[in-house]
Amino acid sequence: MVSYMDYNSPSTQYTFDVNKSPLFKKDNNNYINVLGVQQLNTLENVSLLDIFLSANNFVEPHYHQNAAELVYCITGAAIVSILNPFTKQLLNYTITPGQVANVPQGWWHYEVATVDETHLLAIFDAPTPEVILGSDILKFTPANVMSHTYCIDENQWKKAVAPVKPTTYIGPPNTCNRAHDNTSQHHPRYINHYDNQRYATEAYYQQYPPHQQHYIDYS
């Protein structure tokens, strides 16, 4: 029990219909419902997202600043990709019904359905699943900052991110102008390649071995 909850109150809730709590809807086959303490006030350190995806749809790259995430596959199949910030390794885990993948708090990750009618349950150890989305980072970070920081052409950057819609959640958006090719055919590493991938190059590790990497103290 939690100290802030008055269990004698008539407003105390012990049940809720998650089907009536939409977080985001792309279409009838791709949407997310949410359950947190705002929906069910007796919840403690637990919340969830009920995720429905068709093949080749992504839950966009993001991280949860306040919680770890356990992704459970109910139906269909998905790849959960996690960037380990310590090893700089991109970890790709295929999950099918009854299997889970665990994402530590604050780690960059995303999911893609590999078949239609994929149903995932994302469980969090926090009363509300807070999130920072890749689309918001791309859209709201000033172009001159990205250009100067990464030494890229500012106009090219603006052109590249112009189609990005804030708070995408599930991509690609219905307004995507690219040819609707099968992702598994043209981007096989997303769908068919399950091996863990090095995010950094060997040259990076030669220059900055893990025990010698440089850190800047801004304090």
UniProtKB/TrEMBL annotation:
A Pfam family annotated for this UniProt entry: Cupin_1
InterPro entries named among the record's database cross-references: Cupin_1, RmlC-like_jellyroll, RmlC_Cupin_sf
Name of the molecule in the record: Cupin
Cleaved signal peptide residues: none
Source organism, top-level taxon: Bacteria
Domain Cupin type-1: 21-158
CDD domains registered for this protein in UniProt: cupin_OxDC-like
Membrane-spanning ranges: none
